[in-house]
Specification:
alpha+beta, ten-stranded mixed β-sheet, 23% strand
């Protein structure tokens, strides 16, 4: 089965197709749950379309901690069902669905107290391992936990203060590039027949009496508004759930509250460790997560009721993370060590009563009016279960027999053949004239779809050179992000198809011009549009920097809004 590209021409064709026929399912929202729902529906044989008002994973799904995990802290809260479900999904993602994108990652938990804490925490991690094994999918190649003395822990993580621990536990979870995962999900949905289009905003719902029968969609790129008729519409818009519900003028059965979490990115050499760290804070936990040649430090957890499209990290947020991580680091981090900062919003369920407000990180599916399904809440790790539940609910509104969910058996684009190519990486490097480290980088981003990237280099060898100012990436990856992965603007490429915006001290401004010039021929930009893209990106970076100098959320939000979207919604 050929995998379609998500380039400009394919986007136009998808919009035309979804407008000229009645669909079984229209999914609104291109985050991980929406893209997963589109894949689930398409692989059940349903005529499916997916629309997203901005870019794939533009909201919460590109701004997470980038972990695929059961959630040790939920185990401490005795939420065994959520942890067991998440651990099963972790195993599936590691072993079958996306082994090229989801990777094991070790964490060290420093112990501050002697016998009782080792017994308490050790029992919890042992239960975590046992639940993973009992989930039916092994441990997804993950080692079991181990107990470490203080001496051994300091050998594994020399960055720690000697007086910050009396010993430690080490255990494993998994991580992924969240934005890349969603783009791959959307492309996999297209492979199985879904019509998918970003920069296509739902501006209203079509009604026949009480029933929702589709949506009015505005093409933000080419202009114009058109109707998409569907027998079932799924609202998978995350923190925008309430706003989307408001388009039908109905009171929701629950509400979604936004909780802000921020992360810092620092160079690898600033923290001397061979393992990630998990630290307790007075409110929750703090992670120090390996991320290529960097570390991600996060996260915070604070209410947010300001602009949802561009949540801003304030100076107070940054200070909070630095203060807490420095409690255990022998060489403290400073503001000057911070390469990147990003803020995201978690969609937390807030019901009409105390009982429903306790749902928190669990998810729920509702059918508020005929023809409309709403899915909200949940964790990134359990997106596939949320998608299954949403499609199950939508199927109730179809008057024909539909097969069960099969996404447990569906590898994402790039997964099939990945391990064989990984074993052949040195040979591939010799054949194409790239260092084996470059091939490893490409395989861990594209899997077996790497040949499409190499084909671009074969056609234009200049694309095999590193991008100036962001040398971890090849010039071909910028072109590929547009031609195959649906990027429409410079911000899409530097923020989500790559992570240059958080992995360089200049936040991507040094490479912005070169990247825009690589994108221009694929998107048909002239010199004026290319200049406009670069100027907008530079203004966005400056607005983010200014917001991070502000003392609180209100002033940070105002500063970030100083750089509007390149295409207003």
């Amino acid at each position: 089965m050929k995998t379609p590209a998500l380039g400009p021409a394919e986007r136009g064709e998808a919009l035309a197709r979804m407008a000229d026929r009645e669909l079984d399912v229209l999914v609104v929202g291109g985050g991980v749950v929406g893209a997963g729902t589109a894949l689930d529906a398409a692989t059940r044989g349903l005529e499916t379309a997916l629309v997203e008002s901005r870019d794939w994973a533009c909201g919460t799904s590109s701004r997470s901690s980038k972990l695929i995990h059961g959630g040790l802290r939920y185990l401490e809260m005795l939420d065994f069902a959520l942890v067991r479900e998440a651990l099963k999904e972790r195993g599936l993602l590691l072993e079958r669905i996306a082994p090229h994108l989801v990777k094991p990652v070790p964490f060290l938990y420093p112990l501050r107290h002697r016998a009782w804490e080792r017994l308490y925490a050790g029992s919890g991690v042992a239960l975590y391992d046992a639940m993973s094994i009992s989930s039916g999918h092994g441990r997804g190649r993950l080692p079991t936990h181990r107990h470490l003395s203080r001496r051994r822990a300091l050998q594994v993580a020399p960055c720690l203060k000697k007086d910050a621990l009396v010993g430690a536990l080490q255990y494993y979870d998994a991580q992924m590039d969240d934005a890349r995962y969603v783009a791959t999900l959307a492309r996999t949905a297209a492979k199985y027949g879904a019509q998918v289009a970003n920069r296509a905003r739902v501006v209203g719902f079509l009604r026949e009496g009480e029933r929702v029968v589709g949506a009015r969609v505005h093409d933000l790129e080419q202009g114009g508004e058109f109707e998409v008729r569907a027998r079932q519409v799924v609202n998978a818009t995350g923190v925008w759930t309430d706003e989307t519900q408001a388009l039908i003028g109905e009171r929701g059965q629950f509400h979604v509250r936004a909780s802000k979490g921020i992360h810092l990115v620092v160079p690898k050499d600033r923290i001397h460790s061979t393992t990630g760290l998990i630290l307790r804070t007075e409110k929750s936990v703090l992670f120090v997560i390996p991320w290529g040649r960097h570390w991600i430090v996060g996260t915070t957890d604070t209410d947010w009721d300001l602009d949802k499209a561009h949540p801003a990290a304030s100076s107070a947020d940054i200070d909070y993370l630095l203060e807490h991580v420095n409690e255990v680091l022998a060489v403290p981090l400073t503001r000057n060590d911070v390469e990147g900062v990003y803020a995201g919003l978690r969609p937390l369920l807030a019901g009409e009563s105390d009982a429903t407000s306790k749902l928190s990180r669990e998810h729920t599916v509702a059918h508020p009016v005929p023809g409309l399904v709403v899915v909200a809440g949940g964790k990134y790790t359990t997106y596939r279960v949320m998608a299954k539940d949403a499609v199950d609910e939508a199927v109730h509104g179809l008057d024909r027999r539909v097969g069960p969910c099969v996404t447990e058996e569906i590898p994402l684009v790039g997964a099939v053949g990945y391990k064989a190519l990984w074993n052949a990486r040195e040979r591939i490097g010799r054949q194409v004239g790239l260092h084996v480290a470059r091939i490893e980088h490409l395989l861990n981003r594209y899997g077996s779809a790497v040949q499409e990237v190499l084909d671009l280099i074969a056609a234009d060898p200049s694309l095999g050179k590193p991008l100036t100012g962001a040398e971890d990436y090849l010039r071909a990856e910028i072109v590929y992000g547009v031609s195959h992965e649906g990027a429409r603007h410079l911000d899409d490429v530097l923020t989500r198809r790559t992570r240059i915006s958080i992995e360089t001290f200049d936040r991507g401004t040094r490479c912005a011009r070169e990247a825009a010039e690589l994108m221009a021929p694929v998107l048909g930009w002239g010199e004026d549009q290319t200049d406009r893209e670069v100027q907008h990106y530079e203004k966005r970076v400056e607005a983010e920097r200014e917001s991070q100098r502000q003392p609180d959320d209100l002033t940070a939000d105002a500063a970030r809004l100083g750089a509007p979207d390149i295409i207003p919604l």
